[in-house]
Amino acid sequence: MDNRKENIIGIKSYNFALRVIKLYKYLVAEQKEFVLSKQILRSGTAIGALSKEAEHAQSKADFLNKMNIALKEANETEYWLMLLKDSSYIDEKSFNSIHPEIVEILKLLISTVKTTKQSLNR
User: Fold this and answer.
1) 92-105 pLDDT tens trace
2) How many H helices and E strands in the chain?
3) Please, are residues 109 and 50 in contact by the beta-carbon 8 Å criterion?
4) Which of 44, 55, 74, 109 minimizes the number of CB atoms within 10 Å of its CB?
């Protein structure tokens, strides 16, 4: 397990969760949107929670499981962001501001999952 990489994921996913919380508040207060906003709040904050949980995994397999779930949550979050943009709840500028962050988190999680799988198969 590359602790440096997980720390980067932890920091980036925490900062991303803060942005998602702000987005949720905006969607509820300004757009009066209550369904999609709840979905993105749940999945967007779960990424960091799962990566934090993985820091104290009981084994490499447990770590891999938690990071795999974080990866699924990140992928789902990207879906909700695209849906919010395409349904005009957020504009292109807002989407272009936050979307690169989830793409970066996805790449980091994919790399972590692949590396961990390889180390388990040795």
Assistant:
1) 999 999 999 999 99
2) 4, 0
3) no
4) 55
